[in-house]
Amino acid sequence: MNKNQVAFFVDVKRCIGCFSCAMACKNQYHQPPGVVWRYVYSLKEEIYAHHERAFLSLACNHCEHPTCLEVCPVEAYTKREKDGIVVHHQDKCIGCGNCIRSCPYGAPRYNPELKKAEKCSFCWERQDAGLKPACILGCPTKALQIVRLADFKRPGSLQYIAGFPRMTALNPSVRFNPPRQPMEVRRAL
Amino acid sequence: MNGMELPLVFFTVLGQAAVGMTLIAAMRRHATDSGGPVFAGRNEWLTALIILGVGMAASLFHLGHPTGSPRTLVHLSTSWLSREVLMLGLFGVLLVIGFLTVPQTSGSSVLITLTALVGLAGLIASGLTYAPPSFPALNNGVPVLLFLLTALIMGPAVCSYFTSEDTQALLTGILGTALILGLVMNLILPSVWMSGGRVMQMTGAAHYGSALYWIRLGGEFGVGLAVIAATRRIPVWLPVVLLAGEILGRILFFSKVVHTATNIGGLY
Amino acid sequence: MKPWTDAWIEKALSSPFTRRRFLKGLIAAGVAAAAPCGLPIGSANAEEIVYDEPYQVFRNACPRNCYDTCSIKTYVKDGVVHFIEGAPESSFTDGGLCVKGFSYQRETYSPDRIKYPMFQEGRGSGNWKRVTWEEALDRIARKILEIKEKDGSLLGLGLTKYSGNFGITNYGVEGMMTSLGYTTRFVGTPCWPAGIDAQNYDMGDMWCNDPEDLVKSRYIILWGANPAWCSIHSMKYIYAAQEQGAKVLAIDPVFTQAAAKADEYWQVKTGEDGALALGMARHLLDREMVDRDFLNRHALGFEQFADYLRQEVTLDWAANRCGIPAEHIARAAEEFASAKPATVWIGYGLQRHVNGGATVRAIDALAAMTGNVGKEGGGARYGHLFTWGFNYHALVQKQPEGSVGFLGESGPKGEFDFKQEKATYSDRTVNINKTARSILELDNPPLRMLWVSCKNPFSQDFDLNMMKKAFDKLETIVVVDKFFNQTAQNADIVLPVTTNLEEWTVNVSYWHYWIGINEQAVKPLFEAKSNIEIAAALSKKMNELSPGSCTFATEIDTKEWMEKEFNQGIYDLFGIQSWEDLREGPRKAKLPSSAAWHDLNFKTPSGKYEFYSRLAADHGHDALPKYKPNRTPYGPFRLLTPHSKFNIHSQFQHLDYMEDFNPKPFVYIHPDTAAGKGIGNGDRVKVFNKVGEVVLTAQLTDNVPPDTVLLYEAWFRNNPYNVQNVVDDESADMGLYKTGAPGVAIHDQFADIARA
Ligand SMILES: Nc1nc2c(c(=O)[nH]1)N[C@H]1C(S)=C(S)[C@@H](COP(=O)(O)OP(=O)(O)OC[C@H]3O[C@@H](n4cnc5c(=O)[nH]c(N)nc54)[C@H](O)[C@@H]3O)O[C@H]1N2
Ligand SMILES: Nc1nc2c(c(=O)[nH]1)N[C@H]1C(S)=C(S)[C@@H](COP(=O)(O)OP(=O)(O)OC[C@H]3O[C@@H](n4cnc5c(=O)[nH]c(N)nc54)[C@H](O)[C@@H]3O)O[C@H]1N2
Ligand code: SF4
Ligand code: SF4
Ligand code: SF4
Ligand code: SF4
Ligand code: SF4
Ligand SMILES: [Mo]
């Protein structure tokens, strides 16, 4: 594993499901309506007892072994040495949809206007310019962070939190801090 | 759920039909070596070529940028899609050669065997192309098996148009066996899925819940087997019915198999 | 802009929207130099996005009616906004915005904007005809003059305006009305008035601690407030407090997102919080867990309050009323009283009730008797107008010579009326919360013409069916807005207004203590004008047709007008030499303490905290913070229509970008309740009451109590959904004193449900 691999840390305990991260991405890249690189998935009641009250903010996980990169017939994907970011090169893409179909996290999306796939770039251009990724800067609760896996040691954090597909072969570069529930006093009716 | 992906439906089904034809041809070739009937002529090669051609043409409609299709060969190192394209391309070339050379070599067993093997390799490659981790129900040997069945059903079916009475029995036998295997496979698959993880269960449920699934079971396998059992031969209309059935089956394959991402936030 | 270029933009922005055509359009329109490199074509080719070559950075602010009033940095290249971000200079905004704020780039370039002045042949017909500003203003001006002719006054001309944009210069809309003469004004606020009066009775003003000092709290009650949606930037302080061991208790009939982040959640019975607070007070009194020192030296009438508690309040009574078991009330009361400091965040949703003001007074009392008022990290937090001391240069205008108006004086024209004029004549003021009713009732003269600005009556005011009738009675309706919302759809004339990225103004918050300027980051698109530019243009036209008929400046520079709002007081408060300093970033007020009332000099008549308020009594309320019953139900289920995370009222939800995340509205029903009605998840459901009905999809959730159904207010384009079909205009108990009209009992609504 690349010792410089960067990853998303999603603190589900802090996350309020506000979608600011998801919209911050659109504010930065202007994907056409219907195309989203980051989405805020709510945990179903079978995992968090209350409807739409705990969330997983997910985009591309910049996996150690990226299926997208593996399956792309035209080598439109590359994985950067310097930080393990998986970059999709729009100029190479022929829009065959193979990555879209194959990524278990549904990260690549089809852009009907460009007739090509596209996905979260981890804002590598921003990072190369010394800026934080837009979604991370935009998160009002600091629930979304960028970490270097090599020196990420946070007790209690998980790679495969309930509600997130377990894909050990890919080894997604994302970590989670689980949510918690308050003590509840409800009216007896 | 996922779209029907019609271009891919036709590409895969027709491609597999062509591969199936060459498999049958190869078998018959060897049969003839052991004093069987003479191998059929170039129009059979041509038919396989046309069927494959139509399939490949259809596949272009699936690309956002068809002009880029030649570049799909660049990632042979890891992309099964690249390998699939390469193999089926070679397969096509061999069919052309066969078509052009048949009169002379009246079907060299080397050429037909090679063609069949390359086709088979292409079929396996595409089976692996459609077995990504995102579809737990297919992330295994299932697609290869399904595609092989398609070849073994459509192969004899189409070939039946080109063979003299005396080989009909052989084709009918192969087809019958393939249909039985197909029926069994398609009957148990959903129940196997139902016993898997959440996304597999969703896939199984989607199949049971789909009219297409039942229509195909009855319309293709039911009818096919019944007719063969009754007549011991392949009536001219049967291949059409079988093709329709295979297309339905492939539509199910592309539209009713559930993607892991559809359940994010739920238990897996 | 030349017409052919408009055609280009039309084409560029017309859906289906493509970044390519969008780009072309902008270039063709001369908005952008023809350098595709890094224009907002986004991900088309990541490599095209360039950060090293400098962007022009502008300072903007979010002018919405939101606690957070974020400071924004806008990145512009070639005259086009590429992206925005929260200003890092403000510790409150801290780089983050909300899902709404991050859609500003899209809002400004939205294909759905009102682009030109337009006339509609037949209200609601959608038969819009583009006209020039000249034609539009001419028709408006002539109508105004006609009214003056007919009635001898301009009282037939009405203005309804509220919180679409709180930029200070936008009070020029009220200024424009004044500069025409004495008119009819819809005054008050649907938002927070009952609580404002309550805090004025108790403390002499509405004043809250710096939210950034929540960090210092040891115990935080979120009482009828949902900051996880409505003040998301405050959450980080609540978390920080929790990390330092503070306990957070959320009290709400709904299991809100904020409740999910609390340590403890109480599902109180709606409208019974007064009983709950008084029950806690009684228990603390019995335990003698009160701050005698504060009460003796800084409070008035605590003994009367104590007597009232002893005589009429018990724990069990409170428990029965509010549904929270007595032992919990007692326990939490003790925890609250022993945590030093402890604070209550009093939400605005809490007080939208017929007893809302009384409830806020009871909660204030709880904070005061435990000695938490005036303490850093303590306090009964509601809101403040401490940083709003601008010149209101745009607001303050003179009526034309000889204007005739309403006899006698009027009260304040809303909570932001910092310049109440005293005169023999005055405007005719009517309750904004009874807009529909008033329009129907107003007579001699009747209301003939309505000017709608920063306000969306069809989505945000009450009893939609009555509103439709009321609009039918009006002769002319002018709507100044950014989008064809439900009110605009029923107007005769729409005028295109600028977005916050296209205008100059200055913004402060009613919650935090920062100030930020709002620069014109890009030239207005199409033919949009800012509110004050529209006022100036109208003035010009009025004076053309009838010299002297309007005193508003006819030529204005919006940047200068922004500057004119500043004064020494503002400079001193924020420690700046000139507004130019704000170009380096937002500034925070220099506060002697983060606590409101830190010196314990209250602005009440007695100068003390008044448990006993004679003023309240004079205004017809109880002098003491006594229990006041809630509205008697008029339907089987409590109906709540609170705020959503995807919109501010009728703004944002209609943007195509927002639909990516929230495509349609739902009604939220408890599973047991639904079962009883044979309603399944995803079923179409009819929510109906005496006011009207809405039909929408059901989502079953125990976030709402079984006796409650919930709808979130919102305007969806391409969807007739409107909560005001089932909300009436019943008044809240307080609000008249400080905002000119009583509040409105938005959450005292009831309805039945059935499968549609
Ligand atoms: N049922 C129900 N009703 C409610 C509420 C509720 O909870 N439930 N909440 C109430 C509360 S708290 C409030 S504050 C009110 C809010 O009521 P409003 O103040 O009416 O709310 P908005 O929809 O934010 O703004 C109204 C309009 O102003 C427009 N606008 C924005 N900027 C500008 C500008 O610069 N110039 C002009 N001319 N127009 C502009 C927007 O496009 C929008 O159409 O709603 C109240 N109504
Ligand atoms: N995302 C977003 N943010 C906003 C707004 C928005 O529309 N969207 N609006 C802005 C405006 S104008 C305002 S006024 C504020 C409003 O900010 P808040 O007051 O925090 O929000 P509301 O949704 O109005 O009401 C808060 C809560 O009051 C609860 N409530 C209703 N009745 C009672 C009661 O009797 N007792 C108790 N304990 N709780 C009760 C509701 O269930 C709701 O959860 O938010 C501002 N910020
Ligand atoms: S912005 Fe932060 S808090 Fe909001 S949804 Fe994204 S991760 Fe969660
Ligand atoms: S998440 Fe999907 S798209 Fe992203 S790197 Fe992994 S496989 Fe590729
Ligand atoms: S869609 Fe583009 S990126 Fe994805 S696999 Fe096909 S060519 Fe590669
Ligand atoms: S890292 Fe950048 S590209 Fe990826 S989701 Fe966040 S904002 Fe979008
Ligand atoms: S709506 Fe509120 S939170 Fe969102 S950007 Fe505006 S001020 Fe900030
Ligand atoms: Mo409000």
Give a written overview of the molecule.
Chain A is α+β, with helices and mostly antiparallel strands and 189 residues long. Helix content of chain A is 16%, strand content 20%. Chain A contains five helices and ten strands; from the N terminus they run βαββαββαββααβββ. In chain A, the strands form four sheets. A three-stranded mixed sheet of chain A has the order 8-1-9. In chain A, a hairpin with a 6-residue loop joins strand 4 (77-79) and strand 5 (86-88). The longest helix of chain A is centred in the N-terminal third of the chain and has 10 residues, at 20-29. Chain A is globular and about 60 Å long. Chain B is mainly α and 268 residues long. The two termini of chain B are 17 Å apart. Chain C has 756 residues and is α/β, with parallel strands linked by helices. Helices cover 29% and strands 17% of the residues of chain C. In chain C, the strands form seven sheets. An eight-stranded mixed sheet of chain C has the order 5-4-19-18-17-6-7-16, covered by helices on one side. In chain C, strands 24-28-25-27-26-29 form a six-stranded mixed barrel. In chain C, a hairpin with a 7-residue loop joins strand 4 and strand 5. In chain C, helix 5 (172-180) packs parallel to helix 19 and helix 6 (193-203) runs parallel beside helix 15. Classes of the chains: A alpha+beta (189), B mainly alpha (268), C alpha/beta (756). Chains in contact: A-B, A-C. Chain A binds chain B through residues 41-44, 46-47, 55-56, 58, 67, 69-75, 92-98, 101-106, 110, 114-116, 162-167, 169-170, and chain B through 2, 62-66, 68-69, 71-75, 78-82, 85, 129, 132-135, 259-268. Strand 10 (183-185) of chain A pairs parallel with strand 10 (264-266) of chain C. Bound molecules: ligand MGD (2 copies), iron/sulfur cluster (5 copies) and molybdenum atom (MO). One iron/sulfur cluster binds at residues 24-25, 28, 37-38, 59, 120-123, 133-135 of chain A.
